[in-house]
Amino acid sequence: MSRLSTYFHRRSLTLACVALCLSVFAALQVIEFAVGLSKSPDSLSLFSLVWTVSWCVGAFGVGMHAIWNLILDVERGYSPSRCQSAAVVLFFALVVSGWLVYRLITAVVGLR
Hints:
Blueprint: H1 2-7, H2 12-39, H3 46-76, H4 80-109
Helix pairs in contact: 2-3, 2-4, 3-4
């Protein structure tokens, strides 16, 4: 685990971009799940729900790790311009993650 943390040392912008990419991919999964749920709720399996939720949790987890890494890099003296860029990218990644939670909850509640 320490090897992984040393790999991401001073790489907040890279980790923020990875979080944004995962959030966008998870958003596509949620949209696909919600569209499939609205068309025919009986055809969707528990596997598709678990798959979608796992992508959402994974994207949120990487986003939280990126925030923690950004905080540590600011304390270590990372470049201010890169910290600002990473913060903006993380903002969009977490906005997408928040939208995912909202959309997934509304899709599942609408199922009842």
